[in-house]
Amino acid sequence: MLDFDLAERYGIETRVLKQAVRRNITRFSGEDFMFELTRQEWNILRSQIVMSSWGGSRYLPFAFTELGVAMLSSVLNSETAIETNRNIMRAFVAFRQLILNPPINEVKELQYQVRRLKEYVEEIFTDQNDINEDTRTQLELINETLAELQAKKKEVEKPRPQIGFHAIMERRKNEKI
Protein backbone atom coordinates (compact mmCIF):
# COMPACT_ATOMS: atom_id res chain seq x y z
CA MET A 1 0.00 0.00 0.00
CA LEU A 2 1.15 3.50 -0.67
CA ASP A 3 1.79 6.05 2.07
CA PHE A 4 -1.08 8.39 1.15
CA ASP A 5 -3.58 5.50 1.19
CA LEU A 6 -2.36 4.38 4.61
CA ALA A 7 -2.40 7.96 5.94
CA GLU A 8 -6.05 8.22 4.92
CA ARG A 9 -6.86 4.88 6.57
CA TYR A 10 -5.09 5.83 9.79
CA GLY A 11 -6.74 9.27 9.82
CA ILE A 12 -3.57 11.35 9.59
CA GLU A 13 -1.84 13.51 6.98
CA THR A 14 0.64 11.90 4.61
CA ARG A 15 3.42 14.21 5.82
CA VAL A 16 2.83 13.03 9.42
CA LEU A 17 3.06 9.42 8.32
CA LYS A 18 6.30 10.04 6.37
CA GLN A 19 7.74 11.97 9.30
CA ALA A 20 6.96 9.10 11.71
CA VAL A 21 8.57 6.61 9.32
CA ARG A 22 11.72 8.74 8.92
CA ARG A 23 12.02 9.13 12.70
CA ASN A 24 11.79 5.35 13.08
CA ILE A 25 13.55 4.31 9.89
CA THR A 26 15.41 1.43 11.59
CA ARG A 27 12.04 -0.28 12.13
CA PHE A 28 11.47 -0.24 8.36
CA SER A 29 14.92 -1.26 7.10
CA GLY A 30 14.87 -3.82 4.34
CA GLU A 31 12.51 -4.07 1.42
CA ASP A 32 10.35 -6.60 3.21
CA PHE A 33 8.83 -3.68 5.22
CA MET A 34 8.87 -0.61 2.98
CA PHE A 35 10.57 1.00 0.02
CA GLU A 36 10.38 4.31 -1.80
CA LEU A 37 9.09 4.20 -5.36
CA THR A 38 11.43 5.39 -8.12
CA ARG A 39 10.36 8.30 -10.34
CA GLN A 40 9.71 5.88 -13.23
CA GLU A 41 7.64 3.50 -11.02
CA TRP A 42 5.66 6.45 -9.70
CA ASN A 43 4.98 7.82 -13.21
CA ILE A 44 3.75 4.41 -14.38
CA LEU A 45 1.60 3.99 -11.30
CA ARG A 46 0.26 7.56 -11.46
CA SER A 47 -0.86 7.02 -15.04
CA GLN A 48 -2.98 4.10 -13.78
CA ILE A 49 -4.43 6.02 -10.79
CA VAL A 50 -6.98 8.72 -11.45
CA MET A 51 -5.61 11.80 -9.65
CA SER A 52 -6.28 15.48 -9.90
CA SER A 53 -3.62 17.50 -11.69
CA TRP A 54 -3.34 20.03 -8.84
CA GLY A 55 -2.89 17.48 -6.02
CA GLY A 56 -0.03 15.24 -5.10
CA SER A 57 3.28 15.45 -3.34
CA ARG A 58 6.70 16.76 -4.22
CA TYR A 59 8.18 13.57 -2.76
CA LEU A 60 8.01 10.06 -4.08
CA PRO A 61 5.62 7.87 -2.11
CA PHE A 62 6.59 5.03 0.19
CA ALA A 63 5.21 1.60 -0.61
CA PHE A 64 4.54 -0.60 2.43
CA THR A 65 4.43 -4.37 2.49
CA GLU A 66 2.21 -6.33 4.86
CA LEU A 67 4.99 -6.29 7.45
CA GLY A 68 5.45 -2.54 6.94
CA VAL A 69 1.75 -1.86 7.47
CA ALA A 70 1.89 -3.83 10.72
CA MET A 71 5.03 -1.96 11.83
CA LEU A 72 3.47 1.35 10.83
CA SER A 73 0.57 0.75 13.20
CA SER A 74 3.07 0.57 16.08
CA VAL A 75 4.82 3.82 15.07
CA LEU A 76 1.82 6.09 14.44
CA ASN A 77 -0.10 7.79 17.23
CA SER A 78 -3.67 7.92 15.98
CA GLU A 79 -6.69 6.12 17.42
CA THR A 80 -6.99 3.98 14.29
CA ALA A 81 -3.29 3.06 14.36
CA ILE A 82 -3.48 2.15 18.04
CA GLU A 83 -6.60 0.03 17.50
CA THR A 84 -4.99 -1.62 14.45
CA ASN A 85 -1.89 -2.42 16.46
CA ARG A 86 -4.00 -3.93 19.26
CA ASN A 87 -5.86 -6.06 16.74
CA ILE A 88 -2.58 -7.26 15.22
CA MET A 89 -1.30 -8.25 18.68
CA ARG A 90 -4.57 -10.07 19.42
CA ALA A 91 -4.32 -11.86 16.09
CA PHE A 92 -0.79 -13.03 16.87
CA VAL A 93 -1.86 -14.32 20.29
CA ALA A 94 -4.89 -16.06 18.80
CA PHE A 95 -2.72 -17.59 16.09
CA ARG A 96 -0.20 -18.85 18.67
CA GLN A 97 -3.05 -20.37 20.71
CA LEU A 98 -4.37 -22.01 17.56
CA ILE A 99 -0.97 -23.56 16.87
CA LEU A 100 -0.50 -24.72 20.47
CA ASN A 101 -4.07 -26.02 20.85
CA PRO A 102 -5.42 -26.95 17.43
CA PRO A 103 -9.19 -27.31 17.31
CA ILE A 104 -10.57 -30.82 17.29
CA ASN A 105 -12.13 -31.72 14.02
CA GLU A 106 -15.32 -33.37 15.25
CA VAL A 107 -15.95 -35.23 12.00
CA LYS A 108 -12.45 -36.70 11.96
CA GLU A 109 -12.74 -37.55 15.65
CA LEU A 110 -16.03 -39.38 15.00
CA GLN A 111 -14.51 -41.17 12.01
CA TYR A 112 -11.61 -42.27 14.19
CA GLN A 113 -13.94 -43.54 16.91
CA VAL A 114 -16.11 -45.40 14.38
CA ARG A 115 -12.98 -46.99 12.88
CA ARG A 116 -11.81 -48.11 16.35
CA LEU A 117 -15.27 -49.46 17.19
CA LYS A 118 -15.35 -51.34 13.88
CA GLU A 119 -11.96 -52.90 14.60
CA TYR A 120 -13.14 -53.87 18.09
CA VAL A 121 -16.31 -55.52 16.77
CA GLU A 122 -14.32 -57.40 14.11
CA GLU A 123 -11.93 -58.58 16.83
CA ILE A 124 -14.88 -59.80 18.93
CA PHE A 125 -16.36 -61.64 15.93
CA THR A 126 -12.98 -63.20 15.20
CA ASP A 127 -12.72 -64.33 18.82
CA GLN A 128 -16.30 -65.61 18.66
CA ASN A 129 -15.49 -67.58 15.51
CA ASP A 130 -12.40 -68.96 17.20
CA ILE A 131 -14.54 -70.01 20.18
CA ASN A 132 -17.09 -71.57 17.83
CA GLU A 133 -14.32 -73.44 16.02
CA ASP A 134 -12.88 -74.63 19.33
CA THR A 135 -16.35 -75.64 20.50
CA ARG A 136 -17.00 -77.46 17.22
CA THR A 137 -13.70 -79.34 17.57
CA GLN A 138 -14.52 -80.26 21.17
CA LEU A 139 -18.00 -81.45 20.19
CA GLU A 140 -16.50 -83.63 17.46
CA LEU A 141 -14.08 -85.14 19.98
CA ILE A 142 -16.95 -85.78 22.41
CA ASN A 143 -18.99 -87.46 19.65
CA GLU A 144 -16.03 -89.67 18.67
CA THR A 145 -15.48 -90.63 22.30
CA LEU A 146 -19.18 -91.45 22.74
CA ALA A 147 -19.12 -93.57 19.58
CA GLU A 148 -16.11 -95.49 20.89
CA LEU A 149 -17.82 -95.99 24.26
CA GLN A 150 -20.98 -97.29 22.58
CA ALA A 151 -18.94 -99.71 20.48
CA LYS A 152 -17.23 -101.00 23.63
CA LYS A 153 -20.58 -101.25 25.41
CA LYS A 154 -21.99 -103.42 22.60
CA GLU A 155 -19.01 -105.71 22.90
CA VAL A 156 -19.50 -105.93 26.64
CA GLU A 157 -23.26 -106.53 26.35
CA LYS A 158 -22.95 -109.45 23.85
CA PRO A 159 -24.60 -112.50 25.34
CA ARG A 160 -22.00 -114.71 26.92
CA PRO A 161 -22.10 -118.34 26.06
CA GLN A 162 -23.84 -120.34 28.70
CA ILE A 163 -21.97 -123.04 30.44
CA GLY A 164 -23.25 -126.07 32.29
CA PHE A 165 -25.98 -128.73 31.72
CA HIS A 166 -28.65 -126.35 30.42
CA ALA A 167 -26.26 -124.84 27.88
CA ILE A 168 -25.39 -128.28 26.48
CA MET A 169 -29.05 -129.23 26.18
CA GLU A 170 -29.88 -125.99 24.49
CA ARG A 171 -27.10 -126.40 21.94
CA ARG A 172 -28.21 -129.96 21.09
CA LYS A 173 -31.74 -128.79 20.62
CA ASN A 174 -30.66 -126.09 18.18
CA GLU A 175 -28.54 -128.55 16.26
CA LYS A 176 -31.47 -130.97 15.69
CA ILE A 177 -33.64 -128.38 14.15
State the gist of this model.
The protein is mainly alpha-helical and 177 residues long.
Can you characterise this structure?
With 177 residues, the chain is mainly alpha-helical. It has two domains: 3-100, no CATH class; 109-159. It has helices at 3-10, 14-23, 39-48, 66-75, 79-100, 106-157, 165-176, and strands at 34-36, 62-64. Helix 1 (3-10) packs across helix 2. The model has no long low-confidence stretch (mean pLDDT 82).
Tell me the domain tally: 2
Global outline: rod-shaped
Count of alpha/pi helices: 7
- Beta strands, count: 2
Strand content: under 5%
Q: Structural class, judged by helices and strands?
A: mainly alpha
Query: Order of strands across the widest beta sheet?
Result: 1-2
Radius of gyration: 50 Å
Q: Roughly how much helix do the residues carry, as a percent range? A: over 70%
Topology at a glance:
Layout: H1 3-10, H2 14-23, E1 34-36, H3 39-48, E2 62-64, H4 66-75, H5 79-100, H6 106-157, H7 165-176
Antiparallel strand pairs: 1-2
What are the defining features of this structure?
177 residues; 3% strand; 2 domains; mainly alpha
